Amino acid sequence: MYDFTYQKPGSIADAVKVLGADDEAKALAGGQTFIPVLKQRLNKPSTIVDLSALNLAGITVEPGKITIGGMTTHRTTMNDPNVQRLIPGLAKMASWIGDRQVRYRGTMGGALANNDPAACYPAAVLAMGATIVTDRRRIAADDFFQGMFTTALEQGELITAIEYPVPEKSNYEKFRNPASRYAIVGVFVAKGPAGVRVAITGAGQNGVFRHTEMEQALAANWSADAIKNITTSADGLNSDIHASAEYRAHLIGVMARRSVAGA
After folding, report:
1. Tens of pLDDT along 236-249?
2. String of DSSP letters for 166-183
């Protein structure tokens, strides 16, 4: 690595102040993506702002809604009995992220702020029509994700919580990279207050996206058979050493049918 300033503020206001005053400052949540990036010198921040003392972890339940703090780890989410009972698809998703070490350290807010095109949580947020709560505003899921590694967050803006409306049905299935456990293709389906929504991660060149044709078919008939003849164009899908765009297009259909059947 190289020299940088390390700060561990005790309040959200202090953290935002440091981040807002320096364009080269970066926030550290769980560090499961950020630390490897630092080691490879792909990012060279002047200041690292550790968010671990801001009391942003925890899960609360209200009628029709579950709120998960931005610093809540994947392990906490997967083991929470309320998440398991009310949004089983989200608990399942968290249990499939990385390995045990990653799940103990990685956070939901950090993953969403990074918006890796193969990350899992963006699919859950988009499929359930969740709301991203920051230190200064509320951002609807449809407005939050703006492309590969790009979100609506402004300089110094921190994710404090994610609000999920409790769906009637939810499930997540993914075809995993056997080494990293990232999604080669992941599909989250949900039927709830936001309607019937199908979100795809791992496949799109610009990151997570909704599959509107499948949503329309499932709104009329919630069954795997309703989408068995729907094909997905390979245009705009990722093609790499792990899977071609055409194979990813095929996997979207397979994972979507499994996800609906599991819900």
Report:
1. 999 999 999 999 99
2. PPSEEEEEEEE-TTT--E
